[in-house]
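Hi U.,

Before I forget, here's the chain from the pilot set. I'm dumping it here mostly so it's searchable later in email.
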Amino acid sequence: MAIFKRNSSSVPVPFDSVRFATSWLLPPSVLFILRALISLYLFISVITTLALLNKRNPSTARHYFSYFTSLTYWGLAFYFAFAAAHTGSYWRSGNPFLSRWPKVLQHMHSIYYSTITTYPFLVTIVYWALIYIGFNDQFEWYKNISEHALNSVFALFEIFIPRTAAPPILHVVPAVIILALYLGLAYVTLASNHFYVYSFLDPKNHSRGVIAGYIIGILVGTIIVFFIVHFVIKGRRWVIEEKMGKRGKFTLGRVSGEDIERADVYVEK
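Structure:
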């Protein structure tokens, strides 16, 4: 059943947990199923990849978590698991788990969202522009398409399908800090395992100036991608909500805090 619900007034809340759990296009039940299926695919993919890598080359498998690609892929898998849990709890009870979390965890979830909508595009761009040299077999094709192409597809899903607001501008700071910390991890890997996780960091391949240029370029690229995503999400909200009037699909009686003030809110039972 679908109805239009009119509410007189409300005080906007600073953290709108319902936005993370709902969609302008899909009812909560369908959004929950899709997020859960994406998370399941991601976990199956990484477990399968690790098992096959260990069978083919155990030393490569041991270094799996030294790669930014692997860490961001696991990040996507866990994000979709949490997002499915929030949507599922909202669908069943009208109150997402996220709304009951401490404020610090709510804001960490928001930062988490900012990273999973930024890093996958960075990984995809860097891989296809600097690293790709072809695939030797079906396993490499499957692994690299999953980790360096589908990762961005899943990020696009979270940008365009849910009702999430644009990440706060300040989230660019933790996005850059986390990437800088990964750079430190890359050199820890060099010190402990004596290899460069990415060839463009190897001074045998490039001068120190070129390596510094790559590092600065990737950091700047992260900032650019973050702001593109920020304004794309703002544009999505403007087009979908303001121009098309699609405020969202909700569990009956549980409407997003900032949308209660709107005149017409679509509610699905």
